[in-house]
Design brief:
Layout: H1 13-20, H2 24-45, E1 55-59, E2 65-67, H3 68-84, E3 87-92, E4 99-100, E5 109-117, E6 128-136, E7 158-164, E8 168-174, E9 179-185, E10 190-198, E11 208-210, H4 221-232, E12 236-237, H5 243-253, E13 256-259, H6 272-285, E14 289-295, E15 298-301, E16 316-319, H7 321-328
Parallel strand pairs: 3-5, 11-12, 11-13
Antiparallel strand pairs: 1-2, 3-4, 5-6, 6-7, 7-8, 8-9, 9-10, 13-16, 14-15, 14-16
Helix pairs in contact: 1-2, 2-3
The structure holds 2,5-anhydro-1,6-di-O-phosphono-D-glucitol (AHG) and manganese (II) ion (3 copies).
Length: 332
Protein backbone atom coordinates (compact mmCIF):
# COMPACT_ATOMS: atom_id res chain seq x y z
CA UNK A 1 0.00 0.00 0.00
CA UNK A 2 0.95 3.64 0.09
CA UNK A 3 2.51 3.30 3.62
CA UNK A 4 0.67 3.44 6.94
CA UNK A 5 -2.31 1.27 7.71
CA UNK A 6 -4.86 2.98 5.45
CA UNK A 7 -4.10 0.56 2.64
CA UNK A 8 -5.86 0.89 -0.66
CA UNK A 9 -6.71 -2.83 -0.48
CA UNK A 10 -9.43 -3.37 2.13
CA UNK A 11 -9.92 -7.05 2.95
CA UNK A 12 -13.49 -7.22 4.18
CA UNK A 13 -15.76 -10.00 5.43
CA UNK A 14 -17.82 -9.56 2.27
CA UNK A 15 -14.75 -10.19 0.12
CA UNK A 16 -13.96 -13.36 2.09
CA UNK A 17 -17.53 -14.63 1.78
CA UNK A 18 -17.72 -13.97 -1.96
CA UNK A 19 -14.32 -15.41 -2.81
CA UNK A 20 -14.59 -18.46 -0.55
CA UNK A 21 -18.21 -19.58 -0.39
CA UNK A 22 -19.41 -19.38 -3.98
CA UNK A 23 -22.88 -19.76 -2.46
CA UNK A 24 -25.08 -16.70 -2.87
CA UNK A 25 -27.63 -17.75 -0.26
CA UNK A 26 -25.01 -18.50 2.41
CA UNK A 27 -23.21 -15.23 1.57
CA UNK A 28 -26.42 -13.26 2.10
CA UNK A 29 -27.11 -15.18 5.32
CA UNK A 30 -23.66 -14.36 6.72
CA UNK A 31 -23.94 -10.72 5.66
CA UNK A 32 -27.21 -10.42 7.57
CA UNK A 33 -25.59 -12.19 10.53
CA UNK A 34 -22.73 -9.65 10.45
CA UNK A 35 -25.23 -6.78 10.30
CA UNK A 36 -26.99 -8.13 13.40
CA UNK A 37 -23.63 -8.42 15.18
CA UNK A 38 -22.84 -4.75 14.39
CA UNK A 39 -26.27 -3.65 15.65
CA UNK A 40 -25.88 -5.73 18.82
CA UNK A 41 -22.36 -4.35 19.37
CA UNK A 42 -23.76 -0.83 19.21
CA UNK A 43 -26.66 -1.70 21.54
CA UNK A 44 -24.22 -3.09 24.14
CA UNK A 45 -22.01 0.01 23.84
CA UNK A 46 -25.00 2.32 24.33
CA UNK A 47 -26.71 0.24 27.05
CA UNK A 48 -25.88 2.64 29.88
CA UNK A 49 -26.99 5.65 27.87
CA UNK A 50 -30.14 4.13 26.39
CA UNK A 51 -31.42 2.63 29.62
CA UNK A 52 -30.77 -0.92 28.35
CA UNK A 53 -29.23 -2.32 31.52
CA UNK A 54 -31.24 -4.53 33.81
CA UNK A 55 -33.91 -7.17 33.49
CA UNK A 56 -36.63 -7.63 30.92
CA UNK A 57 -38.83 -9.16 33.62
CA UNK A 58 -39.29 -12.57 31.95
CA UNK A 59 -37.56 -15.98 31.92
CA UNK A 60 -36.40 -17.99 28.89
CA UNK A 61 -36.83 -21.71 28.29
CA UNK A 62 -33.57 -22.47 30.08
CA UNK A 63 -34.91 -20.71 33.15
CA UNK A 64 -32.52 -17.76 32.69
CA UNK A 65 -33.89 -14.38 33.77
CA UNK A 66 -33.88 -12.39 30.53
CA UNK A 67 -31.97 -9.11 30.44
CA UNK A 68 -33.32 -6.25 28.34
CA UNK A 69 -30.36 -6.78 25.98
CA UNK A 70 -31.08 -10.53 25.72
CA UNK A 71 -34.47 -9.65 24.28
CA UNK A 72 -33.27 -6.74 22.12
CA UNK A 73 -30.36 -8.71 20.62
CA UNK A 74 -32.68 -11.65 20.00
CA UNK A 75 -35.12 -9.43 18.09
CA UNK A 76 -32.21 -7.98 16.07
CA UNK A 77 -30.99 -11.45 15.02
CA UNK A 78 -34.46 -12.90 14.33
CA UNK A 79 -35.40 -9.93 12.12
CA UNK A 80 -32.06 -9.91 10.26
CA UNK A 81 -32.17 -13.67 9.63
CA UNK A 82 -35.82 -13.66 8.52
CA UNK A 83 -35.05 -10.85 6.04
CA UNK A 84 -32.10 -12.83 4.60
CA UNK A 85 -34.52 -15.15 2.76
CA UNK A 86 -31.86 -17.83 3.42
CA UNK A 87 -33.31 -19.52 6.51
CA UNK A 88 -36.06 -22.05 7.10
CA UNK A 89 -35.58 -22.76 10.84
CA UNK A 90 -34.30 -20.46 13.61
CA UNK A 91 -33.45 -21.74 17.11
CA UNK A 92 -32.59 -19.13 19.74
CA UNK A 93 -31.76 -19.42 23.43
CA UNK A 94 -34.42 -16.75 23.97
CA UNK A 95 -37.27 -18.52 22.09
CA UNK A 96 -39.02 -21.54 23.63
CA UNK A 97 -39.96 -22.98 20.24
CA UNK A 98 -38.00 -23.00 16.97
CA UNK A 99 -39.17 -20.38 14.45
CA UNK A 100 -40.34 -22.15 11.25
CA UNK A 101 -39.98 -19.57 8.47
CA UNK A 102 -43.06 -19.30 6.17
CA UNK A 103 -42.40 -21.01 2.82
CA UNK A 104 -42.53 -17.75 0.83
CA UNK A 105 -39.61 -16.33 2.85
CA UNK A 106 -37.74 -19.61 3.45
CA UNK A 107 -34.23 -20.62 2.33
CA UNK A 108 -31.91 -23.61 2.69
CA UNK A 109 -30.27 -22.88 6.04
CA UNK A 110 -31.10 -23.42 9.73
CA UNK A 111 -29.46 -21.15 12.29
CA UNK A 112 -29.11 -21.94 16.00
CA UNK A 113 -27.92 -18.93 17.97
CA UNK A 114 -27.28 -17.45 21.40
CA UNK A 115 -27.91 -13.77 20.71
CA UNK A 116 -26.22 -12.51 23.85
CA UNK A 117 -23.87 -14.92 25.59
CA UNK A 118 -22.60 -13.98 29.05
CA UNK A 119 -25.48 -11.55 29.48
CA UNK A 120 -25.10 -11.63 33.27
CA UNK A 121 -21.93 -9.59 32.63
CA UNK A 122 -23.57 -6.80 30.60
CA UNK A 123 -24.51 -4.48 33.51
CA UNK A 124 -20.89 -4.35 34.74
CA UNK A 125 -19.41 -3.83 31.24
CA UNK A 126 -17.60 -7.18 31.09
CA UNK A 127 -17.39 -8.54 27.52
CA UNK A 128 -20.27 -10.58 26.07
CA UNK A 129 -20.86 -12.16 22.69
CA UNK A 130 -23.08 -13.90 20.16
CA UNK A 131 -22.67 -17.56 19.17
CA UNK A 132 -24.17 -19.28 16.10
CA UNK A 133 -24.19 -22.56 14.19
CA UNK A 134 -25.57 -23.11 10.67
CA UNK A 135 -27.06 -26.35 9.32
CA UNK A 136 -28.22 -26.95 5.74
CA UNK A 137 -31.80 -28.25 5.58
CA UNK A 138 -31.83 -31.98 4.83
CA UNK A 139 -35.56 -32.82 4.77
CA UNK A 140 -37.34 -32.38 1.37
CA UNK A 141 -39.37 -29.28 0.56
CA UNK A 142 -38.87 -25.66 1.58
CA UNK A 143 -40.74 -25.79 4.88
CA UNK A 144 -38.30 -26.50 7.71
CA UNK A 145 -38.95 -28.55 10.81
CA UNK A 146 -37.25 -29.21 14.13
CA UNK A 147 -35.81 -32.38 12.53
CA UNK A 148 -33.54 -30.06 10.50
CA UNK A 149 -31.72 -28.99 13.69
CA UNK A 150 -31.97 -32.06 15.95
CA UNK A 151 -29.07 -33.85 14.28
CA UNK A 152 -25.48 -34.84 14.88
CA UNK A 153 -23.17 -31.89 15.47
CA UNK A 154 -20.80 -32.88 12.68
CA UNK A 155 -23.55 -31.93 10.18
CA UNK A 156 -22.93 -28.24 10.96
CA UNK A 157 -21.77 -26.33 7.85
CA UNK A 158 -20.67 -23.09 9.56
CA UNK A 159 -20.07 -21.82 13.09
CA UNK A 160 -18.97 -18.56 14.61
CA UNK A 161 -19.02 -16.10 17.46
CA UNK A 162 -18.85 -12.36 17.77
CA UNK A 163 -17.16 -10.93 20.87
CA UNK A 164 -18.28 -7.50 22.11
CA UNK A 165 -15.06 -6.54 23.85
CA UNK A 166 -12.61 -3.66 23.52
CA UNK A 167 -12.82 -4.56 19.85
CA UNK A 168 -15.82 -6.25 18.28
CA UNK A 169 -14.34 -9.41 16.75
CA UNK A 170 -16.04 -11.96 14.55
CA UNK A 171 -14.49 -15.44 14.43
CA UNK A 172 -15.98 -17.99 12.04
CA UNK A 173 -15.30 -21.11 10.06
CA UNK A 174 -17.04 -22.90 7.24
CA UNK A 175 -16.77 -26.68 7.18
CA UNK A 176 -13.54 -27.73 5.50
CA UNK A 177 -12.12 -24.21 5.74
CA UNK A 178 -9.78 -22.80 8.38
CA UNK A 179 -10.86 -20.43 11.15
CA UNK A 180 -10.99 -16.75 10.12
CA UNK A 181 -10.88 -13.66 12.34
CA UNK A 182 -12.35 -10.21 11.63
CA UNK A 183 -12.33 -6.97 13.62
CA UNK A 184 -15.06 -4.33 13.27
CA UNK A 185 -13.75 -0.95 12.09
CA UNK A 186 -16.42 1.27 13.64
CA UNK A 187 -15.44 4.24 11.47
CA UNK A 188 -16.35 2.17 8.40
CA UNK A 189 -18.93 -0.16 9.93
CA UNK A 190 -17.14 -3.05 8.21
CA UNK A 191 -15.49 -6.20 9.52
CA UNK A 192 -11.81 -6.16 8.47
CA UNK A 193 -10.23 -9.56 7.75
CA UNK A 194 -7.34 -9.52 10.25
CA UNK A 195 -6.30 -13.21 10.50
CA UNK A 196 -6.66 -16.35 8.39
CA UNK A 197 -6.07 -19.95 9.50
CA UNK A 198 -6.40 -19.21 13.24
CA UNK A 199 -5.04 -22.16 15.23
CA UNK A 200 -4.22 -23.10 18.80
CA UNK A 201 -0.59 -22.43 19.76
CA UNK A 202 1.43 -25.57 18.92
CA UNK A 203 2.16 -27.66 22.00
CA UNK A 204 -0.96 -26.47 23.79
CA UNK A 205 0.10 -22.88 24.52
CA UNK A 206 -0.11 -21.17 27.88
CA UNK A 207 -0.86 -23.31 30.93
CA UNK A 208 -4.33 -21.92 31.63
CA UNK A 209 -7.44 -23.68 32.89
CA UNK A 210 -10.81 -21.93 32.78
CA UNK A 211 -13.77 -23.03 34.90
CA UNK A 212 -16.12 -21.86 37.64
CA UNK A 213 -14.29 -23.29 40.64
CA UNK A 214 -17.25 -22.33 42.80
CA UNK A 215 -18.78 -25.60 41.55
CA UNK A 216 -15.78 -27.70 42.66
CA UNK A 217 -17.71 -29.46 45.48
CA UNK A 218 -20.34 -30.68 42.96
CA UNK A 219 -18.01 -32.11 40.29
CA UNK A 220 -17.25 -35.80 39.78
CA UNK A 221 -13.91 -37.06 41.11
CA UNK A 222 -12.05 -37.21 37.75
CA UNK A 223 -12.75 -33.50 37.12
CA UNK A 224 -11.75 -32.64 40.70
CA UNK A 225 -8.50 -34.58 40.27
CA UNK A 226 -7.71 -32.89 36.93
CA UNK A 227 -8.21 -29.38 38.34
CA UNK A 228 -6.20 -30.21 41.47
CA UNK A 229 -3.35 -31.43 39.25
CA UNK A 230 -3.53 -28.29 37.04
CA UNK A 231 -2.77 -26.30 40.20
CA UNK A 232 0.11 -28.62 41.06
CA UNK A 233 1.43 -28.05 37.52
CA UNK A 234 1.28 -24.29 38.18
CA UNK A 235 -1.48 -23.55 35.66
CA UNK A 236 -3.11 -20.11 35.83
CA UNK A 237 -6.88 -19.80 36.30
CA UNK A 238 -8.65 -17.44 33.89
CA UNK A 239 -12.47 -17.27 33.99
CA UNK A 240 -14.55 -14.40 32.56
CA UNK A 241 -17.91 -16.11 32.88
CA UNK A 242 -18.80 -15.33 29.25
CA UNK A 243 -18.24 -18.44 27.15
CA UNK A 244 -17.32 -16.37 24.08
CA UNK A 245 -14.56 -14.54 26.00
CA UNK A 246 -13.24 -17.69 27.66
CA UNK A 247 -13.21 -19.66 24.39
CA UNK A 248 -11.64 -16.79 22.40
CA UNK A 249 -8.78 -16.58 24.90
CA UNK A 250 -8.43 -20.39 24.96
CA UNK A 251 -8.06 -20.61 21.15
CA UNK A 252 -5.61 -17.69 20.95
CA UNK A 253 -3.51 -18.32 24.08
CA UNK A 254 -4.02 -22.08 24.63
CA UNK A 255 -5.19 -24.03 27.66
CA UNK A 256 -8.61 -25.54 28.36
CA UNK A 257 -12.18 -24.37 29.11
CA UNK A 258 -14.38 -26.65 31.21
CA UNK A 259 -18.03 -26.45 32.19
CA UNK A 260 -18.57 -29.95 33.64
CA UNK A 261 -21.72 -31.74 34.68
CA UNK A 262 -22.24 -31.43 38.41
CA UNK A 263 -24.58 -32.80 41.05
CA UNK A 264 -26.80 -29.71 40.66
CA UNK A 265 -26.86 -29.85 36.83
CA UNK A 266 -26.27 -33.45 35.70
CA UNK A 267 -26.10 -32.37 32.03
CA UNK A 268 -23.97 -29.31 32.75
CA UNK A 269 -25.17 -25.76 32.07
CA UNK A 270 -24.24 -24.97 28.46
CA UNK A 271 -26.71 -25.65 25.66
CA UNK A 272 -25.75 -28.02 22.85
CA UNK A 273 -27.19 -26.34 19.75
CA UNK A 274 -26.04 -22.74 20.25
CA UNK A 275 -23.12 -22.99 22.69
CA UNK A 276 -21.53 -26.48 22.68
CA UNK A 277 -21.73 -27.39 19.00
CA UNK A 278 -20.61 -24.08 17.42
CA UNK A 279 -17.68 -23.78 19.82
CA UNK A 280 -16.77 -27.44 19.23
CA UNK A 281 -16.60 -26.95 15.44
CA UNK A 282 -14.49 -23.79 15.78
CA UNK A 283 -12.14 -25.41 18.30
CA UNK A 284 -11.69 -28.52 16.12
CA UNK A 285 -11.10 -26.39 12.98
CA UNK A 286 -8.44 -24.53 14.99
CA UNK A 287 -6.70 -27.83 15.84
CA UNK A 288 -8.20 -28.29 19.31
CA UNK A 289 -10.55 -30.87 20.84
CA UNK A 290 -14.09 -30.63 22.24
CA UNK A 291 -15.50 -33.40 24.44
CA UNK A 292 -18.48 -33.93 26.72
CA UNK A 293 -16.28 -35.83 29.17
CA UNK A 294 -18.20 -38.72 30.81
CA UNK A 295 -21.78 -38.22 29.58
CA UNK A 296 -24.60 -40.78 29.23
CA UNK A 297 -22.12 -43.50 30.22
CA UNK A 298 -19.25 -42.75 27.84
CA UNK A 299 -16.63 -40.11 27.05
CA UNK A 300 -17.74 -38.57 23.76
CA UNK A 301 -16.51 -36.17 21.08
CA UNK A 302 -19.01 -33.35 21.40
CA UNK A 303 -19.84 -33.16 17.68
CA UNK A 304 -20.91 -36.83 17.80
CA UNK A 305 -23.85 -35.93 20.07
CA UNK A 306 -27.35 -36.05 18.63
CA UNK A 307 -29.59 -33.70 20.66
CA UNK A 308 -33.26 -34.56 21.16
CA UNK A 309 -34.39 -31.14 22.39
CA UNK A 310 -33.48 -27.67 21.10
CA UNK A 311 -32.44 -26.40 24.56
CA UNK A 312 -30.66 -29.61 25.61
CA UNK A 313 -27.53 -29.15 27.71
CA UNK A 314 -24.23 -31.02 27.71
CA UNK A 315 -20.98 -30.86 29.70
CA UNK A 316 -18.14 -29.05 27.87
CA UNK A 317 -14.39 -29.79 27.95
CA UNK A 318 -12.69 -27.94 25.08
CA UNK A 319 -9.27 -26.52 24.27
CA UNK A 320 -5.78 -27.64 23.34
CA UNK A 321 -5.37 -31.40 22.80
CA UNK A 322 -2.63 -31.38 25.47
CA UNK A 323 -5.04 -30.27 28.18
CA UNK A 324 -8.28 -31.92 26.96
CA UNK A 325 -6.52 -35.31 26.70
CA UNK A 326 -5.07 -34.81 30.18
CA UNK A 327 -8.56 -34.30 31.66
CA UNK A 328 -10.06 -37.24 29.69
CA UNK A 329 -7.24 -39.50 30.91
CA UNK A 330 -8.77 -39.21 34.40
CA UNK A 331 -11.74 -41.24 33.15
CA UNK A 332 -9.56 -44.21 32.17
P1 LIG B 1 -25.89 -16.95 28.56
O1 LIG B 1 -25.55 -15.60 29.12
O2 LIG B 1 -26.06 -16.96 27.07
O3 LIG B 1 -27.07 -17.58 29.28
O4 LIG B 1 -24.63 -17.89 28.79
C1 LIG B 1 -23.99 -17.86 30.01
C2 LIG B 1 -23.10 -19.06 30.11
C3 LIG B 1 -21.74 -18.88 29.41
O5 LIG B 1 -21.59 -17.66 28.76
C4 LIG B 1 -20.75 -18.98 30.54
O6 LIG B 1 -19.66 -19.79 30.17
C5 LIG B 1 -21.52 -19.61 31.66
O7 LIG B 1 -22.89 -19.28 31.47
C6 LIG B 1 -21.10 -19.09 32.99
O8 LIG B 1 -21.84 -19.83 33.96
P2 LIG B 1 -21.53 -19.61 35.52
O9 LIG B 1 -21.95 -18.21 35.84
O10 LIG B 1 -22.34 -20.68 36.20
O11 LIG B 1 -20.05 -19.83 35.69
MN1 LIG C 1 -29.05 -16.90 29.18
MN1 LIG D 1 -24.61 -18.40 26.35
MN1 LIG E 1 -27.49 -15.92 25.93
Amino acid sequence: GSGGDLDSEFHSLTEYLMTTLKDQELTVLMSQMALACKATSRACAKAGIANLFGMAGDQNSSGDDQKKLDVLSNDIFVNALLKSGSCCVLVSEENEEPIIVPEKDAGRFCVCFDPLDGSSNIDCNVSTGTIFAVYEKKTPGKLGSVADVLRVGSDIVAAGYCMYGAATELVLCFKGQSVQRFALDPSLGEFVHTHSNVTFPSGGGKKIYSCNEGNFPYWDQPIKDAVTEFKAKKYALRYVGSMVSDVHRTILYGGVFVYPADSKSPKGKLRVLYEGFPMALLVECAGGKASTGMFNGSVQRMLDLEPTHVHERCPVILGSPRDVDFILSKYN
